[in-house]
């Protein structure tokens, strides 16, 4: 039996996560429309700046006031920014990501016109938060966001 495109795209997001230079968490993302890939991304610093696993192999990059990475872009941000930089239209797109979007990424996803988000693991569980604020935000404002069931 052939795998569904949902499975193919989530598997690609999982493989892309392995490209991350982050020593804390590796996250991958794939943006699609109508069974076609628009853009890909993984978490890490902006291209041409540094690689956390090389510069700070034991600890990772410096943390911000909330304990998050202070220097890297999230996988969703990288995928969206690359798409926009190259003139891709994101209205109605679907995002596959290995970790549910944080609230700032959810606002970016909503503003970009992405209509569906499938995620593998919970950002809230990873960060020890009470709920997935990003997923709640997306669903509240009409973006279908749900855990991917393989």
From TrEMBL:
Keyword Hydrolase: yes
GO molecular function, one term: dCMP deaminase activity
Residue ranges of every copy of the CMP/dCMP-type deaminase domain listed in the record: 4-132
Enzyme class, broadest EC rank: hydrolase
Cofactor(s) the record lists: Zn(2+)
SUPFAM superfamilies for the chain: Cytidine deaminase-like
EC number: 3.5.4.12
Pfam families assigned to the protein according to its UniProt record, in alphabetical order: dCMP_cyt_deam_1
UniProt keywords, alphabetically: Hydrolase, Metal-binding, Zinc
Family: Belongs to the cytidine and deoxycytidylate deaminase family.
Protein known as: dCMP deaminase
Annotated source species: Mucilaginibacter pocheonensis
Organism placement in taxonomy: Bacteria, Pseudomonadati, Bacteroidota, Sphingobacteriia, Sphingobacteriales
């Amino acid at each position: 039996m052939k795998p569904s495109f949902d499975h193919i795209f989530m598997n690609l997001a999982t493989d892309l996560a392995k490209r991350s230079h982050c020593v804390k968490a590796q996250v991958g993302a794939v943006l699609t429309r109508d069974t076609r890939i628009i853009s890909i991304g993984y978490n890490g610093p902006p291209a041409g700046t540094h690689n956390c696993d090389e510069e700070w192999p034991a600890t990772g990059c410096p943390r911000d006031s909330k304990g998050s990475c202070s220097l890297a872009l999230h996988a969703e941000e990288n995928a969206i920014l690359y798409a926009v930089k190259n003139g891709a239209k994101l209205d109605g797109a679907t995002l596959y990501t290995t970790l549910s979007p944080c609230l700032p990424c959810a606002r970016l996803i909503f503003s970009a016109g992405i209509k569906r988000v499938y995620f593998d693991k919970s950002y809230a569980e990873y960060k020890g938060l009470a709920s997935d604020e990003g997923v709640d935000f997306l669903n509240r404002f009409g973006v279908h966001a749900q855990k991917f069931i393989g």
